[in-house]
Amino acid sequence: MCCPRFAHARRRAVAVYSVLLAATPHRRRSMLYKLSADLLVLLHLGFIIFVIVGGFLVVKWRWLCLLHLPAAVWGALIELQGWLCPLTPLEQRLRLAAGEQGYAGGFVEHYVLPVIYPQALTRDIQLGLGAFVIVINLAAYAWVLFQLTRKGKTASYDS
Questions:
Q1: Are 64 and 50 in contact (CB under 8 A)?
Q2: pTM value?
Q3: Cβ burial, residue 50 (10 Å; 0-12/13-18/19+)
Q4: Taking Cα atoms as reference points, which of 106, 45, 113 lies closest to residue 81?
Q5: Would you say residue 22 lies in a domain?
Q6: Whole-angstrom distance, CA of residue 85 vs CA of residue 90
Q7: In a domain, 6, yes or no
Q8: What is the number of domains present in the chain?
Q9: Domain range holding 131?
Q10: DSSP 3-state of 102
């Protein structure tokens, strides 16, 4: 084996592929829709995490601010305006196409809030989440600016 540490993942991928091949075309299509919906949920979660903590990654990779600032603005707007993220209806359509039950509300209401909050999403909680996104990112970029000014002072002392 060329990559023994990935052997488990490779075996799992082969098992999934075998199940797909053995399934009827309708069942195969249904499984692919379900898999797509699940991958979309992971992508959505990754985006939310990036919106919240991406500003701190800018300390290491400055170019990342070109991706993070628009993402953070979008994330804050979604919460503050009470909009529905476009990924949510797409995920719901994929779930319905897979023969699963869709759900009402958005991604945060369906997946995140049941973990964080015992009650349903209210407008006040949405406003709080939007404010949280803004505050955490202001703190992150303040830290970035602090690091830049500190490096600038260090460079001027070295010369």
A1: no
A2: 0.64
A3: middle
A4: 106
A5: no
A6: 9
A7: no
A8: 1
A9: 29-152
A10: coil
Q: How far apart are CA 44 and CA 36, in angstroms?
A: 12
The answer as to whether 60 is a domain residue is yes
pLDDT per residue rounded down to tens, the chain (159 residues): 455 666 766 777 666 666 655 656 667 778 888 888 888 888 888 898 899 889 889 888 889 989 999 999 998 898 888 888 888 888 888 888 888 776 666 665 666 656 545 466 677 877 888 888 899 889 988 988 888 788 765 544 444
- Joined tokens for residue 143: 């830290």
Residues 44, 85 contacting (CB under 8 angstroms): yes
In total, the chain counts a number of residues equal to 159
Residue 95 · residue 101 · CB < 8 Å: yes
Please report whether residue 76 resides in a domain. yes
